[in-house]
Amino acid sequence: MSTFSSKLACIDIYDPITPNVFDKIYRVGETTCGTKLVDNRLYIVCQGTENVPGWIADADVIPFVHPIIGTLHSGFWENLPVLIEQLKVDIPAGVDIEVTGHSKGAGEGVQLAGALHAYGFNVVHVELFACPHAGFQDFADYMQKNISGVSWRNSPAKFLYMGDPVPMVPLNPFVAPYPLTYMDVPPDGAKRLVDVEWHMGVLYDQGAT
């Protein structure tokens, strides 16, 4: 797990976006992402849900069939075509690309990674924190065949059906883009009994460090 990616995705990209971290910020509708070039690796970091339009996008699970990468969660895909066109102009030639995000940012990020790969960019890795199911099995197959990736879920070590619920939804026929890898970083006190409290980005960042 990259501690650099976890801080970018789970802390720095959330509003108010941490100053002087990202080289450029993109906003398309309720979708926000930042880019950071380190040596020859470009990090593309998608922001999780921050507002009501974001929640509406989370709930928009009508399938959308992309002709190359597969069947997608429409709410996550809605703003990506415009974002991709903006990124195409700015991505430096020859860089390796790593895409990361937390929650909705992970759902959008994994679709973005797949699309950039399909369009010929060198996407080398995807690091996902609390990623909801972003597509059908055909999309998961495409991602696992073409791009290295890890999808983290925060859950009690001995009770995998408890913990963060977001990486478990929406339900079939939507599936996880990569097999889930588990961390066990409980929230404080009685909050550990509340599933959604396991979803907080700060806990995923703690798990990475």
Q: Could you explain the architecture of this structure?
A:
This protein is of the alpha/beta class and 209 residues long. The protein has seven helices and nine strands; from the N terminus they run H-E-E-E-H-E-E-H-H-E-H-E-H-E-E-H. The protein has one domain. 32% of the residues lie in helices and 25% in strands. The strands form two sheets. The protein has a seven-stranded mixed β-sheet, with helices on both faces. Helix 1 runs antiparallel to helix 7 and helix 5 packs across helix 6. The longest helix is centred in the middle third of the chain and has 15 residues. It starts with a helix and ends with a helix.
Please provide a brief summary of the model.
The chain has helices at residues 3-12, 52-59, 74-77, 80-90, 104-118, 137-146, 201-208; strands spanning 24-28, 31-38, 41-46, 63-66, 70-73, 96-102, 123-129, 148-154, 180-183.
Give the helix/strand layout.
Blueprint: H1 3-12, E1 24-28, E2 31-38, E3 41-46, H2 52-59, E4 63-66, E5 70-73, H3 74-77, H4 80-90, E6 96-102, H5 104-118, E7 123-129, H6 137-146, E8 148-154, E9 180-183, H7 201-208
Parallel strand pairs: 3-6, 6-7, 7-8, 8-9
Antiparallel strand pairs: 1-2, 2-3, 4-5
